[in-house]
Putative membrane protein DUF2232 (Microvirga subterranea), 322 residues
Amino acid sequence: MNFVVTGIGAGLVSALLTAVVLKATPLAAVLYLLAPIPVLIVSLGWNHRSGLVAAVVGGLAIAVFLSPLSGLGFALVTALPAWWLAYLSLLGRPNPDGTMEWYPLGRLLAWVAGTAALTIFATAIISTGGDFDAFHENAREISQAFVNLQFPPSESGFDAEDREAVIDLFARATPFLSAQGFTAALALYLWTAGKIVSISKRLPRPWPAVCELMMPRTVVIALAVAVVLASIGGFIGVFGFALAGAMFMAFALQGLAAVHDRTRGKSGRGFLLAGLYVLIFMTQGTLLVAAALLGLADTLFGLRYRFGSGKAGPKQPPTLSP
């Protein structure tokens, strides 16, 4: 019953971190962002069934004290994605020599992107009751607030028609941007929880060389499908944009991993990497486009397989299997 007890505790902690967002303070917002980590920790350190218990308990607690819709949102957006990624992280099969072959990090990153896209898509449907017009109106309100903040009407050179076109563009891109950010958040949550569990000596798998991750070539098909779906209207287009944004961030993370891998053992590595992240911050993420292109090329052509890496690096090209 140990996994039940830990699951109940993690679910209540995660629910509390979610509920404090009602305080509408900066600290409450920070605590809200930490809500998936307890579910990840118990799933990785005890048993994935603990994560399921945490999802159920947390969802029921929020449903009772806030609202049933909030409880469902907690389960779909916070708990279940965390549980699923933890479950995949601990998949493994024994090799003939007795060693364990753990789930590859590249495929795990692909699932992080897929999970983020599906979560954003489900949230869009649930929050609007399946009404696409309501979703689009909400997206336009968010887009209008963003455009007015970045380009104040009194200072920008946009006329009314151009401003409406920009607002519509950002409104359509809302699922792309949301999934992009959620993919990065899920990857960070998983890394943080894994590190905590690893330090406590409860992580079943050895700590992997994260910089060596490489997604399989089949994820390029998912990117192509996302582009096609994004050209379709309605919620199908919403899912296409969400999947495209998630895949963009996944390839950007792989591109950054490739830079980390290629610079291993090089003098001045810390200075170079620090400068890279400063540039990303200063360009407001624009440099991530170059990182995503590097990650895409790395998957398509196996750049690190062909040209080597800082140390041992990936020994096989990206697999064609899912």
